[in-house]
Design a protein that fits this description.
One of its GO terms (biological process) is proteolysis. The protein is an alpha+beta fold and 190 residues long. The chain is 17% helix and 27% strand.
Length: 190
């Protein structure tokens, strides 16, 4: 009983001492720039140069669409994919990590839009350069990828309660610019 009294008294004294102690000053952390001012100036000059007329560091896509809430409120551009090349309209979505195109085997996909956009369906079998991305491919490693029959699939749910799902495919993306002419590059899309 004496030990219980001693323990209780000690705890009460410790709590009282802690409560009577002056409050500690707020913690102050020093903010340091991760990149030096000189490096920031170099980055700024590089960025400025990229935006100058005649800079060939980007490809101009013609952009179409509308921000009107009475329409779809989206922008789209036309890309050319595959061998032989075919044109497809794709939505410019800055809130998503992937660009997707409806495929011919698309179940339940819409076949019309309220925008004046022609919907075309990609057929991987009609492109000699098309291939599915396997589950072991390093590009198949994100939070929204899923594997099915060793093909890298995806499923994304958007804030407006719509969703998209499909299989990642690799194929040639064709670019045409005024200054360089036609070019192709490999690309992965859903």
């Amino acid at each position: 009983m004496a030990s219980l009294f001693f323990t209780t008294t000690f705890c009460c004294m410790f709590i009282a001492a802690a409560a009577a102690a002056p409050p500690s000053p707020p913690l102050t952390l020093k903010l340091e720039r991760a990149v030096s001012n000189q490096s920031m100036q170099q980055l700024s000059l590089h960025d400025f140069g990229r935006h100058q007329p005649g800079a060939n560091h980007f490809t101009n896509f013609s952009l179409h669409g509308s921000y009107s809430i009475y329409e779809a409120g989206l922008y789209y551009t036309t890309v050319t994919l595959g061998t032989p090349p075919r044109s497809f309209n794709v939505m410019i979505d800055t809130g998503s990590d992937i660009t997707w195109i409806n495929c011919v085997r698309c179940a339940g996909c819409q076949d019309a839009t309220i925008l004046p956009v022609r919907l075309s369906y990609f057929d991987p079998r009609s492109s000699s350069t098309s291939s599915s991305i396997s589950c072991s491919d390093k590009r198949c490693s994100s939070d929204f990828t899923r594997c099915n029959d060793n093909r890298c699939g995806y499923r994304l749910h958007y804030g407006d309660d719509s969703e998209t799902s499909g299989i990642f495919t690799s194929d040639l993306l064709h670019f045409t610019t005024i200054s360089v002419g036609s070019r192709t590059t490999g690309s992965v899309f859903g």
